Amino acid sequence: MTAALSCGGLGKRYGDLVAVHDVGFSIAPGQAYGLLGPNGAGKTTTISMLVGLLRPDTGTVLVGGVDLAREPLRAKSRIGYVPQEIALYPELTGRENLRFFGRLFGLPRRALATRIAEVLDLIGLADRADTKLGTYSGGMKRRINIGAALLHRPEVLILDEPTVGVDPQSRKAILEGLERLVGDGMALLYTSHYMEEVERVCDRVAIIDHGRIVADGTRRELVSLVGGADTVELVLDGDVEAACAKLRAVEGVAEAVRTGAASVRLMADGGRYLLPSLITAVEGHATVTATQVIEPDLEATFLHLTGTTLRD
Amino acid sequence: MWRAMLTVSALELRTRLRDGTAIVIALVVPVTLATLFGLALGGDDPPLRATVGFVDLDGGEFPASVRREVTAAEELKGSVTLRDLPSGGEARRALDADEIGAAIIFPAGFTRSVGAGEGGDVTVLTSPRSPLAGVVAGAVVDRISAVVDARTLAVRAALLAGVPGERVKELVERNGAAGPALTLTGDPLAGGKVDLAVYYGSGMAALFAFFVVGASFRSLLTERKLGTLDRMRAGPLAAWVPVAGKAVVGFALAMVSVCATWVSGTLIFGSSWGDPLAVLAVLTAHVLAAAAITMLVAARVKTDAQADGVIMVISFVMAFLGGSLVPLHSLPGVLQAVALLTPNGWTATALAELAGSGASVAAVMGPIGVLLAIALGAGGLAVLGLRKGMLL
Ligand SMILES: Nc1ncnc2c1ncn2[C@@H]1O[C@H](COP(=O)(O)OP(=O)(O)OP(=O)(O)O)[C@@H](O)[C@H]1O
Ligand SMILES: [Mg+2]
User: Gene3D superfamilies from the xrefs (chain A) (predicted)?
Assistant: First the structure.
């Protein structure tokens, strides 16, 4: 099957600064692909090259098998691009904004009104479509911002941080809308600062840092990269010091430190399965009154790979 | 693709019309300023005085009769002086030195060749700095050629009819094919008044064309800031669509602006700018040049606010140097030369020529050519700049 969007060897320099280096991935129809990276990692630069706004120094972009550099119009007609900032006319209404971009993107006159109504339904703004965009809330603008990219029924939707500055309700509406689109077979490229969004929407994630993709895979694959070490927190009643020594001796426990008068933190492989032996190990010295197992998540993986947290 | 371009144009037009200042800048201000300047400074003000050089290499009765006629003409009394000069070269020198405003040169043997039915050519030298003298000389020569033509025809007819050569002259003169006597009909000065109202009117038109057309290229930068330009460029449409869609509207509005200033000037002051077709051609070429220059500005600056500032400065500097604010003939010589580095200078020269002489478009092909060359040069650089700045 032809990938809905694939790129390889993408590179872009600004003078001495390497903004993007050797970036490549492939997104199948109906697949949602996440691009995670700290500020300045090169996400927007990568996306700009994918949608034809920026000429790459190296590399190629194929949209549904069509070379973007060679046949830009055909390739672009299959892409819906949602810019990082709201890119709409504040003095026009929501509907007028959609009509303008619909006409510009070549929708036939008769089909246009119907399609605009469909898109407004999808983004849940049918009732506010005829007031000026300037009066919309941040979340409503964001929704029109996405809607304008859907008019020409693209096969790939590319979103550059589409939920920045959005109220929880709009965020929910946006994410549900995107999930529906993916369910209908659209390919999605999604960048965000919000780990939970990427974890929720995307079935595959690339972590980009300093312009390079440092890891790439399903959520589970990425998490396993950090190793299976879980964090286990125990609250003990009794001789905590002695219990701690016993715990260190348990097979699979890498480390055990006292973190309070009655609490111990362990690093252990397969922490959840280890719990029974941990409880047995401390018998005679103390009793376990509470346990918590923290499995590594994408956030931890991200921290491990890039040395930074995701948010500013 | 055309539909996409029209979509961009429609929005641009709508935005411009909704924004009241656009109308004010395109129509109200130039028309008002042109009218105020015209009322305050216009009228018969330009000195209706001209010295016409007279070079008589012929020495026959024809030049003598012309001299008689011009000195005797009531309409020319006190405003036109003839000055005898020994040669064509001398006439040209005097013209360049602004000692005379125009010159009429009769070649040797002129009277004899006309008498023999062979016709003859009188040379006229004119200077754009003295349209009035040019008009007088032109009117005189028009009369001369009419007489020469009539004579030539009559002589030929008589010869064909078998009249012996020595009797032809007498026969022709007796039968009324006017002798060398030359009568100036009408007021030869009528077209020569380049009313200052026309001068200021065309100056305002030339100045405001920059602002009006420039606003469209400025809005390209506004759209870059808004992000809508990137949205367009990421869409399935050719790169030239947004730029062309806006340029078309800027061009059309600027044409409306210059034509409104032209028409209002003609109606209010009753003074013609000259052959309408020729005026339109010059104004069109000017607007094209202004479009290319403001497009180049948009390609070189970063923000729409910068574009506003730079377009403002460039427009006023060009207007001042190019004689749109102060008539060219009242600027010192150095500045008159500098004026020809600006489109305004060429437009002012061409329009003064048209208003002064009633000439047709052929007379201003030179300035029009220069304006178009400026448009092409600046436009080419602008396109390169727009590409580099990711606007195109
Ligand atoms: N036009 C430009 N000129 C010079 N450097 C640039 C330009 N655009 C981007 N950069 C640099 O390239 C790097 C990547 O920027 P980019 O905008 O792609 O990051 P990003 O991952 O989108 O960041 P953010 O999360 O803040 O949006 C940054 O160091 C940035 O400063
Ligand atoms: Mg970015």
Answer: P-loop containing nucleotide triphosphate hydrolases (3.40.50.300)
